[in-house]
Amino acid sequence: METVKRKILFNKPGGTASKNAMMARLTLPTEFVKALGITQEEKEVIISLEGEKIIIKKA
Questions:
Q1: Is the pTM for the entire model greater than 0.90?
Q2: From the CB of residue 36, how many other CB atoms can be counted at a distance below 10 Å?
Q3: Is 32 helix (H, G, I), strand (E, B) or coil?
Q4: Which residues contact 29 (CB under 8 A, 6 or more apart)?
Q5: pLDDT on residue 39
Q6: What Cα–Cα distance (Å) separates residue 33 from each residue in 11, 16, 39, 45?
Q7: Backbone phi, psi, residue 8, to 5°
Q8: Cα-flanking dihedrals φ and ψ of residue 31, to 5°?
Q9: How far apart are the first and last CA of the chain?
């Protein structure tokens, strides 16, 4: 299993979001995305939280 360290980017969303709303983003290494078979046409993923792990699977 390959592991990389990344930082989470936090932003305040615009539009009709609540005043205290916070949005978090994470960039994924391209090789991870390719390994899952995620493309610009097939970009849906399923995200789940298992204990202290975030699991990302192709939908």
A1: no
A2: 14
A3: helix
A4: 4
A5: 97
A6: 23, 31, 8, 10
A7: -85, 135
A8: -65, -30
A9: 21
